[in-house]
Amino acid sequence: MSETRAGFVALIGEPNAGKSTLLNRMVGAKVSIVTHKVQTTRARIRGVAIAGPAQIVFVDTPGLFRPRRRLDRAMVAAAWGGAADADIVVLMVEAHRGMTDGVQKIIESLGERTDGRPVALAINKIDRVESKVLLGLADKLNKAFAFEHTFMISAEKGFGVEDLKTWLAGRLPEGPWLYPEDQIADLPMRMIAAEMTREKLTLRLHQELPYQLTVETENWEDQPDGSARIEQIIYVARDGHKGIILGKKGETIKAVGQAARAELEEFLGRKVHLFTQVKVRTGWLDEAERYSEMGLNFSDGA
After folding, report:
1. How far apart (Å, rounded) are the C-alpha atoms in residues 85 and 50?
2. Can you give the pLDDT at residue 80?
3. Where are the domains of the chain?
4. For residue 209, is pLDDT > 60?
5. Any alpha helices (H) in the chain, and if so which ranges?
6. Is the pTM of this model over 0.70?
7. Which residues neighbour 31 within 8 Å (Cβ) at sequence distance 6 or greater?
8. Top-level class of domain 189-301
């Protein structure tokens, strides 16, 4: 039998570059929140994928962007922290957006942040541009940084993903696996449940309330009949936000709860009783406890 390999791979890039979509496709299950909003991934979620004798542990980092608030700064610190902890770093760039100022700034920091470790380039959403544009972009990016390998992929459709996965598996250090074979994420189920509800809220509310809320799973009880009773609190920063989440005659929160419950039942493979309530906490963006719930370091936002 071939030697087992195991290690950490950090997916970095601008917000909305497709990191969560790629992670979920590699792992084969939905472990990271995916929306069309930017900056939706807050915690460093690890998804575990198996490729032959190798176990690849993915660190899905928040998108790298110019931080303005404490929460932003903590997210950016978590992203670079994920890269610093990894054996291999993969920079994801959107094909149709090309070499943006944001990508340029990430590349400028890559050398000192990765400390000689392998860095691969994954140009994502390749179905959106012509091959001539793709080749030009790959050339430009490789002149800006000495990437060890360049992959052309579509995380959404699966193009090129297996090639990337195989390459990563072969570059990881030899050693025993880090997680049990059947484990796909090291994120506590309470946090995954909270993320699912937050995703539904983000999709439903669009631009009305994108980052002024957080969801916490306050209580989780496994019932004698095999079902789970899950109680969650949605924290908002202002009174006016509470009405937006509840919606007319409670329609919004009801629809969000139903969608989150259905996804949780599919994920857990059992019946779920989900109860949500909305609470106003004017200063939650400055509370260390809220950051801990999201897997972020409060002091990184200072």
Report:
1. 20
2. 57
3. 5-171, 189-301
4. no
5. 19-27, 70-84, 101-114, 131-144, 161-171, 189-205, 239-246, 251-268, 288-293
6. no
7. 23, 24, 45, 47, 60, 184, 185, 187, 192
8. alpha beta
Task: Compute the distance between CA of residue 292 and CA of residue 302 in angstroms, rounded to an integer.
Answer: 15
Structure tokens at 187: 């994120």
Residue 164 pLDDT exceeds 80: yes
Highest CATH level, class, for 5-171:
alpha beta
pLDDT tens sequence across 227-261 = 989 999 998 888 888 888 898 998 999 999 999 99
Please count the other Cβ atoms lying within 10 Å of the Cβ belonging to residue 262. 14
Rounded to an integer, what is the distance from CA 174 to the centroid of its chain? 26
Residue 259: predicted pLDDT: 93
CB atoms within 10 A of CB 245: 20
Do residues 295 and 191 make contact, with C-beta atoms less than 8 angstroms apart? Answer: yes
Q: Which amino acid is at 77?
A: A
pLDDT of residue 170: 95
Q: Return the higher-pLDDT residue of 24 and 62.
A: 24
The 228-236 sheet, strands edge to edge: 213-222, 228-236, 272-280
